[in-house]
Write a structure and sequence with these properties.
The protein has 7 helices and 5 strands. It has 172 residues and is an alpha+beta fold.
């Protein structure tokens, strides 16, 4: 049996986490074993996120400070055995939970979530999960920026290369 103090601590933990995280994904964890839950927790921690099993009734108190237009749809997602996944970057929790749900089909179901104060549905969570990581986007941007410089350098070398070829091919 959970004491009132423990329940208040759970509520405070969820409030603190949700305040500093950009993305919250609500899942129904159904037939997920303890080992599988731990595996999901490790994957989320590696990406800078968190996974927490929650009591549905306590969630009503955890989101007391939330705007009503966000609170009502969010609380309707807490059905069955619920858990929440958080991440600071707004993408990694969606990606990890989505990939885990594909690998463990039928054991975990994504309900939706909140991203930067906006309710998101299952389709949006899936879209977030398929976005490339920040590192991949940065690499692509650097590649785009380097391409014109490389082309310019080749254009500058081309006249010199032609002159060198012409002088080398001229009979002595």
């Amino acid at each position: 049996m959970t004491t009132r103090a423990q329940k208040q601590q759970m509520i405070d933990d969820v409030k603190a986490l949700s305040g500093k995280m950009a993305l919250l994904v609500v899942v129904e964890r159904g037939a997920l074993s303890v080992a599988e839950s731990e595996q999901l927790r490790k994957q989320l921690r590696k990406e800078g996120g968190r996974f927490k099993v929650v009591k549905n009734r306590l969630m009503t108190h955890s989101f007391d400070d939330t705007q009503q237009e966000v609170k009502d749809p969010l609380l309707s997602m807490f059905v069955g055995q619920s858990a929440i996944a958080f991440s600071e970057d707004g993408i990694s929790a969606a990606r990890v939970v989505h990939d885990f749900a594909k690998d463990h089909e039928g054991k975990i179901t994504i309900r939706g979530g909140v991203c930067d104060g906006t309710i998101i549905d299952l389709a949006t969570v899936k879209q977030l999960a398929t976005l490339p990581s920040l590192d991949v986007l940065r690499a692509g941007l650097i590649g785009l920026l380097q391409t014109p410089a490389g082309n310019l350098a080749r254009l500058m070398r081309e006249p010199i290369r032609r002159i060198a070829q012409m002088t080398a091919s001229k009979p002595q």
